[in-house]
Structure formats: structure tokens, C-alpha cells
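In the previous chapter we treated chains in isolation. Here, by contrast, the input contains two separate entities that must be folded as one system, with a combined length of 580 residues.
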Amino acid sequence: MNSILELKDVSYVYSKGTPFEKVALDKVNIAFEKGKITGLIGHTGSGKSTLVGLLNGLNKPTEGTVFLDGVDIWEKPKEISRVRYRVGLVMQYPEYQLFDETVREDIAFAPKNLGLDDVEIEARVRDAASFAGIGEELLDKSPFDLSGGQKRRAAIAGIIAMRPDVLVLDEPAAGLDPRGRSEILGSLRKYADDSSASVILVSHSMEDMAHYCDNVVVMADGRIHSSGTVDEIFSVAEKLSKIGLDVPSVSKIVSALAARGIDLKGKLYTVEGVKDAILEYIKEVNK
Amino acid sequence: MNDYIIKTESLNFVYDDEDSDIVKQATSPALSDVSLSIKRGEYVAILGHNGSGKSTFAKLLNMILTPTSGKIYIDGVDITSESFSEDDMFDIRRKIGMVFQNPDNQLVATVVEEDVAFGPENLGLPREEIRRRVNSALSVVGMTDYARHAPHKLSGGQKQRIAIAGILAMKPDIIIFDESTAMLDPMGRRDIVAIMERLNREEGITILNITHYMEEAARADRVVVINDGRVVLDGSARDVFSEVSYLHSIGLEAPQGNELIDELRSAGLDISGDGLTPDEATETLFKFLSRKN
């Protein structure tokens, strides 16, 4: 396995040593691979936000180690900010964090802080904008004149411009219409493929997870409930329902058909996959 | 009593040029020629992509925005007429409650029950009446146990429930949910939709649910689709969501069951029936596949 970011026996305890002590993460072991999109799911309170904070050093593990490229990120605590350039974090509703006069300046903010020269900065801004689907014509506009979806993409471009080895996004498609969702999530697929970065996607949308992720990690009660490829995780959809998570609607249809004796086979968690499975089923029956 | 609780005639709206936040819309009408009648007690979902004008419509109804031209009648009262006074406005606003997207932006007090009491207190009601309304509103949204909690410690879904209770305490005729479930997790979303439907069925409140979730919209009695400021589809959820390819062309989708059946039809299968809900899709597909057997 070609992992870039790895957590070993990581625990995180809030307000340790006080009556309010709460274990948010309990001995978590997990590795994120290069060039893959990993979906992180779990309902509110499952520990996934705490985990996200640990990935780029916003939170320091109470116990255990976070390795980036084999190096403990807390080895030199004073240099933790360097980790944040390599592990980019796009928080929820990042469009509220746009601030500069033009989209170009906004995207250039992080590369400038990296101390890069102007030519390199310009190249990175163009690259990042193109990854995020921000057209050339938008670069000189004020970020506040963009539509909601464009603002979201501009904010994501600002993080991509750092060329992070790991890109973590918390609900990047929340509140967007279906077209906006597929544009943003499609651009993440492209970034993972082209830059061989590891992309970590936190989302409640099982449909999006099933469609865009390679691997899925399910969190529950501060632990890893299960992890594996999209195939492995969504083929046991009932296990997800049991811990209060939604399964894609098509998976519900597939389970209900199975209960009535129609067993489909294949990628049974996307519309496309179920369509193929049904066509295959009919072929078999007609033989 | 008026049959139509909401009625608009040739409603047009153009954003102010000075409103720099929305410059893009300054040149094109955010709404054009919208004529829509909504009956008392209807449960309506409003769909449209980001920037389609659907939120503008909601803000016009609640007089957060003023139309450029056209008429709006709320419960028979013309809120766009010259003689419409500020007192009348107060009255209308009490009839229409709005729940917004961000649960953190809507609560004002430091204790849940005080937050819910905020509206009725401003109506100058007697103490006992306020108490009655707060208790009943909290019980309707299932938050009685949290009456003395601090709102900031609640989950997103719970905060939205408190926001709804605050509106219920005003005894509204209409509640508009403007993407109120967008920031919630699946459990929170289910809770809010369940409350919406209970308010509609049990209290007879007219519900307008503006949403991006097709499965949510499919539960409404009627679905109105707005694209580029115009009403382009208006009908039962069944009729609207059967237009799968048209919905795709304007950047929307249908519930996955309908999408699946539509794909299968495109692949040459002659399936009759719909898939508005997973149950219905199962039924439709089961019938079709067992006939094949």
C-alpha cells in the first residue's frame, strides 16, 4: 500500500483530567493512500471532525502518532505549520473565508506565504483555478461577485494552490445543486488522479460517496467502525443502517428486491451500477 | 377565509444594482412573470438550481424584498398595494414564518425557552399566553426536555427545531423552509422533514419547502420548479419527476428510483410505473422483473 498519511493508535480526549473529560477518538489506526479519494462517514458525534483536526495538526493527539510520509508530524511542534501546507484542509462553507480583492489574489495567498517567486505563483494560481473549474475570466473579478458555487470552487482553489499532498474537505458540496455538486466532486477526482495526492472527503451524502470515492472509512463512537473499498463497504449496506447512517436510495431498492427473491450482482450502490446489474439479470433469466 | 393563502400575479423582481453581493443578477431579472396560487394547507416543494430565483420568491412573500412589479396576495390581502401599511405588514409577517439554512444564525437568546418566547413577547401577549405557546411549540417539535438548555450546545437539527418552535409560537398560517435541511446530517434532516409534515397534516399549516434534495421534494403534494426566474414545471411530484431528461437539462435530478427506471427505459426496457420512493421503485421493478421470469 502506498500510504502518505497514517495514524497509529491515535486517541484524543477533550478536557482531560476534568469532570468534563470525553474520549472523542479511541486508539484509531488508519492509513490514507496516494491518488485515492477516501470518504469519511459517521454521524454527528462519531469523532470524524476530531479526526479531521488531527490530520493537519489542528489537534494534537492525546496518545499515538500521526505520520506524514513516515515522519511524526509532532516531532518538532514549532514546525507544525509546515504540515498545514502539505495537508490542506477545506472547512465547511469555505466561501465565507474568501477575503481578497480579486479571485487571483485570493488563490495566490497561500503560495505567497510559501515564499514562492511570482512566476511560480502565477503558474500555481492557473493550475489550481483550472482544477477547481474557475475560468480565466473570473480571476480578475471580486470573489464577492461570484455565484455560490463559483465562490466555493474559488475557496477550494486557494487550498489546491499549495499543491498539498493530502487534501481534506469537510462537506465540500453541501448546499449546492446537483450540477454544482458534480462539478466540485469531479474536480477532486481529477486532482487525485493528476497529482497523486490523497483526497479525504467528509460527507453525509452516501450517493456522493458511492459515486466519487475509492475507499470509505466509517466512524462510530470514536472508533473506526469499518473501512475498505467502496465495493466492500456499500455491499453490506444493512450494517450502515444499523449505526444510523443512510444508504444510497438505490441500495435500498436492491435490498428490497433481494428480500423478494431477485438477487442482483455487481456495483449495487450507484444508479449506473444497478442499471447494469438489472440488464445482466434479465440476460441471465432469458438464457 | 380565502381559498388561496398565497397568490402571485405576473411577479417580477430585479435586484438593486447597488446590491454588490448579487451583481450577476443585476442585469437579468431574478424573477420574471411568476404567477402562482397556493391553497391553504398545501405542502409544496420548490426546486431550482443555485441562483434560479427560488429564494427570491420566498423573500418576496415575506416582504424581505419588494417586487419590481406584479401582485402578491397573502390570505386575500394585497401586500403590494399602495394602501398597504406598516401595521398590515406586521400582521402578514406573523402569518408567514421562515426557517433559514444556517441553524447558528437564527437563535437570539441564551436559553431555549426564552428564544421561543421572543416572538410572542414582542406581540405583547399576556404572560400565561406566552407560557402556553412556548410549551406547546416546544412539545410539537419534541424539544420540551431542552427548554432550559443553552441553544449553542444543541446539534444543528435541534437548533432548527428551536427555530421552528419560535415560529410556531407566533401561530403562523404558512412556514417557508429555505434550504433548512442543507446543513444537517441525515438524522437531523429526517427529523425536520417529519416535523414539516406533521405541521402540515395535523396543524393544517401551509408548507413551502425550498430544497436541493430531490427525495425530500418527492414527498410534497406539489412540486414547483423554477429556472432562470421562471416557473418551468408545476404539478404533482409524480408528474414533475417523470420529466427526468428535462430536469437534467436544467441542472437538477429526479429521485434515484426514477433515475434508475429512466436509465433502464433508455436501455430499451419497456417498464411501466414510477420510482418516486424506494418502495415504489422496488414495486415497479419487481413487477417488471417477475414478468420476465
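Chain A touches chain B through 41 residues (CB under 8 Å). The first helix of chain A runs from residue 48 to 55. Compare these points with the single-chain example from earlier in the chapter.
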